[in-house]
Q: What sequence folds into this?
């Protein structure tokens, strides 16, 4: 079965008010998605992760309270380990302007959140801002109980959207042109990513199926040495393809689209960017436990599955064309229903009211 391009109609309903995403004192530059749009060829930040909440509503991403438009009515303030006091001040100012203000942790992985709340002062600051805001938006279901424990008036799980309903973001290639395994993780030094395990297990599957393994290395010589060690010990030869990183986002998606399967063993309970990247390439993602993995890849996510089970599934997807086509279709359908810009824009419109 060959991949199908979707329509290019507008995905943001006229009734949806634009949302501003505010990352106080953050590094990413301000970006107005109502004018910049979501063109993959653009040099601006792609409409993924927390930028996507702004993009799907034709809103904007800002790094200071001064950048929030005077007519803004809906703002999502991102919380980071080092900006909690500044974020709280921003929330107060916005509420004084009668703005509906939701807050969300920008770094939502399990270990990242545990580190943030491990300090008594930070925990209190986190509780203060959660209590102050209109509500807390959780990008993963795992954090919903934490926001409630912090005293939030409202808590809603809204996954980070992906533009699977925009034809310009369909990076798929014909299935006949896809080959090999793309490693979805990159960090050797974050234990919960299980990057080394993912590379090694992919090499096992690749030798069995006689396919390539593609891995991005952003770690320079240190990463090269580790990957060369795996290549030598596993006897993979030139079937292990190492791509120096980082890459421009469209180039990265094109590499994923050239592969048959994305593979990872991540146990970080993150929102699931890699799984979302795979959706834009229309490639199955096997093994992650993030929110996007579970919603967009219902047959192949890693939650509740052993490594042996996942490895067996990976090997079947590499060799069974009927199974592969069915998984691709199910994943695309699930993504359109739960993660598309139009669906999440509508969900955000339902969060616009203050609590009664």
A:
């Amino acid at each position: 079965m060959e991949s199908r391009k979707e329509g290019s109609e507008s995905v943001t309903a006229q009734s949806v008010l634009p949302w501003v995403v505010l990352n106080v004192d953050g590094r990413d530059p301000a970006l107005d998605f109502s004018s910049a749009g979501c063109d993959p060829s653009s040099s601006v930040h792609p409409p993924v992760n927390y930028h996507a909440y702004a993009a799907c509503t034709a809103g904007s991403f800002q790094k200071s309270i001064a950048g929030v438009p005077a007519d803004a009515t809906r703002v999502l303030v991102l919380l980071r380990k080092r900006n909690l006091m500044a974020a709280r001040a921003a929330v107060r100012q916005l509420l004084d302007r009668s703005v509906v203000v939701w807050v969300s942790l920008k770094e939502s992985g399990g270990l990242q959140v545990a580190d943030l709340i491990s300090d008594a002062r930070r925990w209190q600051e986190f509780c203060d801002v959660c209590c102050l805001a209109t509500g807390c938006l959780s990008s993963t279901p795992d954090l919903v109980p934490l926001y409630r424990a912090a005293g939030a008036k409202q808590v809603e799980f809204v996954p980070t959207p992906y533009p699977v309903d925009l034809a310009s973001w369909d990076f798929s290639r014909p299935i006949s042109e896809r080959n090999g395994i793309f490693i979805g993780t990159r960090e050797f030094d974050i234990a919960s990513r299980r990057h080394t395990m993912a590379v090694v297990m992919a090499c096992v599957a690749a030798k069995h199926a006689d396919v390539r393994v593609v891995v991005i290395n952003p770690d320079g010589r240190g990463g090269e040495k580790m990957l060369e060690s795996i290549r030598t010990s596993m006897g993979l030869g030139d079937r292990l393809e190492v791509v120096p990183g980082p890459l421009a986002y469209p180039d990265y998606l094109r590499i994923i689209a050239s592969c048959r399967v994305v593979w990872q063993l991540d146990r970080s309970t993150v929102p699931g960017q890699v799984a979302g990247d795979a959706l834009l390439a229309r490639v199955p993602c096997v093994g992650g436990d993030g929110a996007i993995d579970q919603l967009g890849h219902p047959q192949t996510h890693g939650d509740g599955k052993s490594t042996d089970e996942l490895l067996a599934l990976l090997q079947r997807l590499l060799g069974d064309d009927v199974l592969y086509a069915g998984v691709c279709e199910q994943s695309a359908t699930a993504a359109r229903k739960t993660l598309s810009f139009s669906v999440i824009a509508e969900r955000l419109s339902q969060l616009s009211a203050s609590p009664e």
Summary: The chain has 14 helices and twelve strands. The two ends are 50 Å apart (CA to CA). Confidence is low (pLDDT under 50) at residues 1-11.
